């Protein structure tokens, strides 16, 4: 089912939930909504579900405008962060509830519930009540309940955020696999960017009720169109520093206090064409500690992450996060040389925070 | 030995270090003395400070006086309990020592109390009513062994060798005689019938108060105090709450016990059923029989319609209160509409409004309602519907607030989930939300049912002179119509009225337990 959202605005009195959102989602696509807390992800999802009525704009499922359609007539399945299971019903009754409401015959109900439960690995728990299940099992029940009626659209609102890290990893794979298998158009809300990057075909990054970017994960990562997207996507986050880019002897130099770096042709050209200071962004993995680096700095903090160490290096007033293999034995206070991979830097307009390199 | 015993019982793992004996004794004494002092001060505060204040305001007041005397009465025992609970702590080290400690302290506290009584001529040393002669029981009657020269008996002309047979015309033995004396006040006359030689004589003796300070009188008190302390020391700790509970509930329990005994007996004296000759016995089913026969001391009635009226009021009321409260509570909890805040605060004010003040205005409302054709017969003046309607109105503010609170606690997501699963709003309400607030519905239902079942003022006011009367109203009629009131009969009707409540509670309790044992608590 294609979902078309045009200029959607939802306000609660004066509070803006989401504003002027335009998004076209293809049939069978897995889209993640990514953004910090309070940016309007849940609001958008509930508006799609029909729980909220849009203040302005239009939502279409396929060709049908659904603005005024009741939730029950939209044929969607939704998994909530709190799971929202019905505590007074058994697992079987929970999963069967959507079928019961559709007036599916009893024996077919039983068959379908058992089938879905088996797929979810909870086939032996059907007689229990939600209160007697672990968080992960409840999660599977919620997922089973959303899937059982074979919805046209699946909505997930941070379904994994209450699980432990390990289980989250497993469920991540399972959900993605199921979605591809069934080919159901899905929207997955999360504020965990790893989840969004690994699962989604395309990611809609939101901030403060506005859509910041809507692109494939790789695109977002390597060609961020705004400074917000650049900073939000990627972990550890991108380093930003304000520089002046100038041209001298056919070469482009990015310069600021204690920093003087040569930038490659295309990127440097675009940045040099910009009048005044620009924001330069560079990802942690694009900075190396190396003997023949040309920037001198001092290690401020070393945070071991296991596979690698996250190192905060101070260069004069600037601070750079970078990654180094765990086998290296850097200490706080140590003087080091840094090498910047200047072919991967990003430049942003400090006023509009838009990318100077990639235009929308 | 006791120390080793407690180690075997596994209560302690290391050898306990016993504190020096004098320190624990001091602590126990101190605790006892402090609690005694506190109660003494409280007693003085009530009798000397609060009491006079009331008298100044020209208010006849005995509560403070009674309270003060009660405090003085229980003061020694509170002190024993306080001291013994200190001693208790040492039972795990050495039982004998703990007991010794408790006894020593009790003895000390007892001495202090007794000294106080001695000085102030109170307690065991209070002056006793006496007739100043020594008596022994003999076959013929009570024989006077000797009389105190110049004493009360002597003045009245009683001589040694007289045999007392009766006080006035009531025959007595020595025990009854002594009891009679000890219950008399100073100056009370006792007309004694006695035999001197062959003659039967009568003389009136007046009671005098003798402040004889007999130390022997202390012994029973001391024995009791020591036994009391020993019990406190050895009482298993987990019994304490039950003992406190039973102690506090005893007025209620005794009350119910009386009601039950009274309904099955001809006459009662205290808690003891008596027959026509004041002997134990006289059990009867008459009180219950007459309820069902429909004739009590000439008042004719039929209990069935009265019972049904009560039931109808209670059931109708419960049903409407639950329905309206839950729906209104849902709307107030979940929906935003103009006037919502006003409505909320207004119902709260209504809840605080005393119902009695509205009796007369509502009377007029019901009268007018009664004029409306058809509807008037359902909810007008002198109808069960009208009574239930008024009572429902008084119950609703509480109900609506209670239900709103319960709905507030249901997560929004559960409701949204049901809507998305394909349920209509109504269905979500009935199938998903109402089951979540079952405990609330049950609680409100119990309130409403009991309120309706026991309702008196409103049914009594709005069913004057009609056949409509429920059990409480009938009970009042019964008391009015019989003189002297047959309280055993009244108790039977009262207990009869309680039966459905008991049944209701038994079922409700099971249901409540089910709700909690079934793990129906929310998952989100
Ligand atoms: N029912 C409501 N009434 C008023 N304001 C609301 C309501 N629901 C959401 N908002 C506001 O709308 C904004 C967006 O909320 P939303 O729940 O969509 O955030 P979110 O992106 O889902 O955040 P989170 O990651 O914390 O779940 C917030 O500022 C929130 O306070
Ligand atoms: Mg949210």
Q: How would you describe this protein?
A:
The complex is a heterodimer of chains A (360) and B (524). Chain A is of the alpha+beta class. In chain A, 26% of the residues lie in helices and 35% in strands. In chain A, the strands form 4 sheets. Chain A has a 6-stranded mixed sheet, with helices on both faces. In chain A, strands 13-12-11-14-20 form a 5-stranded antiparallel sheet. In chain A, α2 packs across α3 (106-120). Chain A starts with a strand and ends in a 12-residue tail after the last strand. Chain B is of the alpha+beta class and 524 residues long. Chain B has 3 domains: 15-124, no CATH class; 128-210, PDZ domain (Pdz3 Domain), CATH 2.30.42; 304-473 and 502-518, MetI-like (MetI-like fold), CATH 1.10.3720. The longest helix of chain B is centred in the N-terminal third of the chain and has 36 residues, at 21-56. In chain B, a hairpin with a 2-residue loop joins β4 (163-167) and β5. Chain B is extended and about 100 Å long. In chain B, strands 2, 3, 4, 5, 6 and 7 form a 6-stranded antiparallel sheet that branches. A two-stranded antiparallel ribbon of chain B has the order 1-8. Chain B has 20 helices and 12 strands. The interface between A and B is medium-sized, with 32 and 24 residues. The complex binds adenosine-5'-triphosphate and magnesium ion (MG). Magnesium ion binds next to α1 of chain A.
Helix fraction of chain B, binned, reads 55-70%
C-alpha end-to-end distance of chain A: 27 Å
Briefly note the CATH topology name of the largest domain in chain B. Answer: MetI-like fold
* Number of H/I helices of chain B: 20
**Spatial separation of the terminal alpha carbons of chain B:** 56 Å
CATH class label of the largest domain in chain A: Alpha Beta
Uncertain stretches of 5 or more adjacent residues of chain A: none
**Beta-strand percent range of chain A:** 25-35%
Strand order of the largest sheet of chain A: 6-7-8-3-9-10
CATH architecture of the largest domain in chain A: 3-Layer(aba) Sandwich
Spans of at least 5 consecutive residues with low confidence of chain B? 1-13, 517-524
In CATH, the homologous superfamily of the largest domain in chain A goes by the name P-loop containing nucleotide triphosphate hydrolases
Using only C-alpha atoms, the radius of gyration of chain B works out to 34 Å
- Overall pLDDT confidence of chain B: 83
CATH topology of the largest domain in chain A: Rossmann fold
Average pLDDT of chain A works out at 91
Helix content of chain A: 25-40%
Tell me the structural class of chain B. alpha+beta
Major sheet details of chain A = 6 strands, mixed
């Amino acid at each position: 089912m294609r979902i078309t959202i045009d200029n959607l605005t939802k306000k609660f009195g004066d509070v803006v939930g989401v504003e002027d959102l335009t998004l076209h989602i293809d049939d069978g696509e897995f889209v993640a909504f990514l953004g910090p807390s309070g940016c309007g992800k849940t609001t958008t999802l509930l508006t799609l579900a029909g729980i909220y009525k849009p203040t302005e704009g239009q939502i279409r499922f396929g060709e049908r405008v659904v603005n005024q359609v009741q939730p029950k007539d939209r044929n969607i399945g939704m998994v909530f962060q709190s799971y929202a299971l019905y505590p007074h019903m058994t697992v079987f009754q929970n999963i069967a509830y959507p079928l019961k409401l559709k007036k599916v015959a009893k024996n077919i109900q039983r068959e379908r519930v058992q089938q879905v439960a088996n797929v979810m690995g909870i086939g032996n728990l059907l007689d229990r009540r939600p209160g007697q299940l672990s968080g992960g099992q409840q999660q599977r029940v919620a997922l089973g309940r959303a899937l059982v009626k074979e919805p046209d659209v699946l909505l997930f609102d941070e379904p994994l955020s209450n699980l432990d890290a390990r289980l989250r990893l497993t469920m991540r794979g399972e959900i993605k696999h199921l979605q591809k298998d069934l080919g159901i158009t899905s929207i997955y809300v999360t504020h965990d960017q790893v989840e969004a990057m690994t699962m989604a075909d395309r990611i809609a990054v939101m901030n403060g009720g506005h859509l910041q970017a809507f692109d494939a994960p790789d695109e977002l990562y390597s060609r961020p169109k705004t400074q917000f997207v650049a900073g939000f996507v990627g972990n550890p986050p991108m380093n930003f520093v304000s520089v002046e880019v100038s041209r001298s002897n056919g070469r482009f130099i990015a310069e600021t206090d204690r920093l003087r770096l040569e930038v490659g042709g295309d990127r440097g050209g675009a940045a040099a064409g910009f009048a005044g200071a620009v924001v330069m962004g560079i990802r942690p993995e694009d900075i190396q500690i190396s003997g023949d680096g040309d920037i001198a700095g001092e290690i401020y903090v070393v945070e071991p992450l296991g596979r690698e160490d996250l190192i905060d290096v101070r260069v004069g007033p600037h601070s750079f996060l970078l990654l180094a293999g765990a086998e290296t034995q850097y200490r706080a206070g140590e003087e080091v040389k840094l090498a910047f991979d200047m072919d991967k830097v990003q430049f942003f307009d400090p006023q509009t925070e838009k990318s100077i390199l990639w235009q929308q | 030995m006791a120390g080793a015993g407690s180690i075997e019982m596994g209560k302690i793992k290391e050898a306990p270090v016993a504190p020096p004996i004098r320190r624990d004794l001091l602590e126990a004494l101190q605790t006892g003395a402090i609690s005694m002092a506190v109660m003494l001060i409280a007693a003085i505060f009530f009798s000397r400070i609060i009491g006079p204040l009331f008298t100044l305001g020209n208010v006849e007041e005995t509560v403070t006086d009674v309270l003060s005397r009660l405090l003085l009465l229980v003061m020694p025992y509170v002190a024993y309990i306080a001291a013994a609970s200190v001693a208790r702590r040492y039972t795990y080290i050495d039982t004998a020592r703990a007991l010794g400690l408790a006894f020593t302290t009790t003895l000390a506290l007892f001495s202090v109390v007794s000294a106080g009584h001695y000085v102030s001529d109170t307690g065991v040393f209070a002056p006793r009513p006496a007739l100043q002669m020594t008596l022994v029981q003999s076959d013929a009657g009570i024989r006077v062994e000797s009389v105190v020269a110049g004493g009360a008996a002597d003045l009245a002309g009683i001589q040694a060798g007289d045999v007392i047979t009766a006080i006035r015309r009531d025959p007595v033995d020595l025990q009854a005689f002594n009891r009679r004396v000890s219950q008399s006040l100073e100056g009370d006359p006792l007309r004694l019938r006695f035999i001197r030689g062959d003659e039967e004589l009568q003389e009136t003796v007046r009671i005098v108060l003798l402040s004889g300070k007999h130390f022997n009188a202390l012994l029973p008190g001391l024995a009791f105090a020591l036994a009391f302390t020993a019990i406190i020391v050895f009482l298993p700790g987990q019994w304490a709450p039950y003992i406190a509970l039973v102690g506090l509930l005893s007025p209620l329990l005794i009350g119910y016990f009386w009601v039950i005994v009274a309904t099955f007996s001809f006459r009662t004296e205290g808690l003891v059923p008596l027959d026509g000759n004041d002997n134990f016995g006289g059990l009867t089913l008459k009180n219950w029989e007459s309820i069902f026969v429909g004739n009590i001391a000439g008042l004719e009635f039929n209990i069935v319609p009265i019972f049904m009226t009560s039931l109808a009021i209670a059931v109708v009321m419960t049903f409407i209160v639950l329905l309206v409260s839950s729906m209104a509570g849902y709307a107030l909890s979940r929906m935003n509409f103009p006037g919502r805040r006003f409505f909320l605060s207004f119902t709260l004010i209504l809840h605080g409004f005393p119902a009695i003040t509205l009796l007369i205005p509502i009377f007029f409302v019901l009268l007018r309602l009664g004029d409306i054709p058809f509807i008037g017969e359902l909810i007008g003046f002198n109808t069960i519907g009208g009574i239930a309607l008024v009572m429902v109105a008084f119950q609703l503010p509480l109900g609506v607030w209670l239900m709103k609170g319960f709905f507030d606690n249901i997560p929004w997501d559960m409701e949204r989930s049901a809507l998305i699963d394909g349920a209509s709003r109504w269905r979500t309400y009935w199938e998903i939300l109402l089951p979540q607030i079952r405990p609330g519905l049950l609680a409100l239902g119990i309130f409403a049912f009991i309120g309706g079942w026991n309702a008196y003022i409103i049914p009594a006011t709005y069913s004057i002179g009609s056949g409509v009367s429920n059990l409480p109203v009938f009970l009042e009629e019964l008391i009015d119509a019989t003189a002297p009131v047959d309280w055993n009969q009244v108790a039977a009707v009262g207990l009869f009225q309680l039966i459905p409540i008991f049944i209701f509670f038994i079922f409700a309790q099971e249901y409540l337990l089910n709700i909690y044992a079934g793990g129906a608590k929310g998952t989100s």
